[in-house]
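We were asked to recover a plausible sequence for a given structure. The inputs and outputs are reproduced exactly as logged, with field labels preserved.

PROBLEM: sequence recovery
POSITIONS: 584
GIVEN STRUCTURE:
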């Protein structure tokens, strides 16, 4: 099971047309892409329309670039990313390229400028991105609704100019909204050469004529041509383009259908050393819990050793558990980083539900902490830097680990750290895929979880940073922060009553600025922590002056009696020296 594809495919009937109309050159561009299989589930189907600005000298090139690059680049983004992140990244890069090309012209508005409207159909939601005066409509149950608003500023009744467009400014402001999808919905995209000359009533009547499931692709194409002809008859002097997409089928929301897809492969039996499964010989059990088992296995054909994770038979009839188990291997196969355990895909046919990872020879960080109660600070920073690199790889894929703890980090025989276990991960791209299953909420371990996770069930990148800071504190001191009371906190008041004891008090070898960085990452308010995990790493490795204290203030905080004894002694000595020289 190399992919993750649980839902049935969406299905559409589509038609589109583009015409230069009365102009010599067609500066409009249109495109539709409906992939198959896993890509349709993870990224969705896309329709995009662009209208090169006539006043621009490179309007045609701009619109064609918008459509071509959007369709190719969107599907090149990680499938763990949400639609919003993927599209924002693509449009931002595309706009910067158009703007940079346009700067070759004296007036940027004469360069590479185009409108762009796109609708992305994923699961049961249509995601709409829009800049300019192209439009997107939806026809549902005979009612036509305009889903976009024109970014036009009118000088008078007949003259207007675009206030927003691709390539017009280095900063791009794109409208975004999402709407639900029903079977039978018709989405209509058009350039102003059509909707400025055909009223909404005529557009609605044309779309109603192809609303039935019996209407074929040829009829939708004819619908587009009819609207183009009507606009020309109404004296449209612009290019004319439009697209019609009818939603014919949506992914199943029937739990029985989903369960059937999830249970294609049976759970393997409990395995013992010496047993063989799909050509893998079981050497020993590495870990066993109520939720899963991990075995050290050897490929009989190649002698290579792997870790095999199998689901627990306790959950054989729980679809939500099975889905999460399948997603674990899906995540691991998409993260390629030396500090994240690798999921291994082989060419062998699977007869049971399980997945393989690389075998890491070494110890858990939990054991390392026990064996190194007060290690050299540079050793801690060395390992933490690697853990952060692994977490950063997950975060860049819009994936939260949600269970960062010493038991989920391995130290291999070369002293390198690797994050393991994807069982609690949250993936933005998958969260957008609707399902009838009751998915588990935020998972994790209480003594390492951030307050917002425990109190509100909300997890962000800052929550992973908090968990890591708990680990860093524990590595530096051999003890958990807040006197180990995090696991007892169930209310805001309980968190506020905890006391933070600086790590440099428990281990005098810890630099004050390192403790300052850890303390910031452990703030109860996520907005007061680091915005990005790389910032945490920077302050752990680069002394921040704001965390420095004078020796006297540090000593006073730690031992005020001794501080005043020392201060009094110094003052007495200074007085005696002064008297001595005065008597000389």
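RECOVERED SEQUENCE:
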């Amino acid at each position: 099971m190399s992919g993750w594809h649980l839902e049935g495919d969406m299905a559409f009937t589509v038609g589109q047309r583009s015409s230069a109309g009365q102009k010599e050159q067609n500066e409009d561009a249109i495109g539709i892409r409906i992939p198959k299989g896993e890509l349709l589930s993870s990224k969705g189907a896309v329709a995009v329309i662009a209208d090169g600005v006539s006043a621009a000298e490179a309007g045609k090139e701009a619109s064609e670039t918008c459509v071509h690059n959007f369709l190719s680049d969107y599907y090149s983004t990680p499938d763990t990313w949400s639609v919003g992140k993927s599209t924002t990244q693509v449009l931002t890069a595309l706009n910067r390229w158009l703007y940079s090309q346009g700067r070759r012209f004296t007036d940027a508005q004469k360069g590479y400028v185009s409108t762009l409207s796109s609708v992305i159909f994923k699961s049961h939601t249509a995601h709409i991105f829009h800049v300019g005066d192209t439009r997107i409509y939806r026809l549902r149950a005979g009612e036509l609704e305009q889903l976009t608003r024109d970014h036009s500023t009118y000088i008078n009744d007949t003259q207007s100019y675009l206030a927003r467009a691709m390539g017009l400014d280095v900063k791009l402001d794109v409208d975004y909204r999402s709407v639900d999808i029903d079977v039978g919905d018709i989405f209509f995209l058009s350039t102003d050469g059509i909707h400025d000359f055909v009223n909404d009533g005529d557009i609605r009547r044309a779309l109603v004529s192809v609303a039935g499931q019996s209407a074929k692709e040829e009829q939708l194409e004819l619908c587009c041509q009819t609207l183009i002809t009507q606009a020309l008859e109404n004296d449209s002097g612009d290019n004319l383009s439009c697209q019609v997409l009818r939603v014919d089928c949506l992914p199943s929301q029937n739990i029985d259908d989903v369960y059937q897809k999830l249970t294609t492969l049976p759970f393997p039996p409990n395995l013992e050393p010496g047993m063989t499964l799909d050509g893998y010989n079981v050497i020993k059990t590495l870990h066993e819990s109520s939720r899963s088992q991990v075995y050290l296995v050897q490929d009989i054909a190649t002698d290579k050793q792997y870790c095999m994770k199998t689901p627990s038979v306790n959950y054989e009839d729980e679809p939500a558990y099975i889905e999460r188990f399948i997603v674990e291997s899906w995540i691991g196969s998409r993260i390629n980083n030396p500090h994240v355990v690798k999921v291994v895909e082989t060419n062998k046919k699977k007869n049971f539900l399980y997945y393989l990872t690389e075998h890491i020879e070494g110890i858990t960080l939990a054991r390392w902490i026990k064996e190194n109660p007060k290690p050299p600070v540079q050793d801690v920073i060395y390992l933490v830097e690697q853990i952060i690199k692994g977490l950063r790889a997950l975060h860049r894929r819009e994936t939260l680990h949600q269970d960062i703890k010493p038991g989920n980090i391995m130290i291999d025989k070369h002293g390198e750290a690797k994050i393991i276990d994807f069982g609690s991960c949250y993936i933005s791209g998958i969260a957008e895929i609707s399902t009838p299953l009751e998915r588990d909420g935020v998972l994790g371990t209480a003594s390492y979880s951030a307050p917002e996770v425990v109190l509100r069930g909300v997890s962000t990148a800052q929550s992973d940073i908090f968990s890591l800071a708990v680990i860093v504190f524990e590595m530096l001191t051999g003890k958990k922060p807040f006197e180990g009371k995090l696991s007892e906190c169930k209310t805001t008041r309980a968190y506020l009553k905890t006391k933070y004891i600086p790590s440099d008090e428990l281990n005098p070898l810890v630099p004050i600025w390192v403790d300052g960085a850890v303390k910031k990452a452990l703030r109860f308010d996520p907005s007061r922590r680091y915005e990005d995990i790389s910032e945490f790493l920077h302050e752990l490795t680069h002394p921040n002056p704001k965390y420095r204290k004078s020796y006297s203030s540090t000593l006073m905080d730690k031992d005020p009696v001794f501080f005043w004894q020392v201060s009094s002694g110094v003052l007495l000595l200074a007085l005696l020296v002064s008297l001595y020289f005065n008597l000389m």
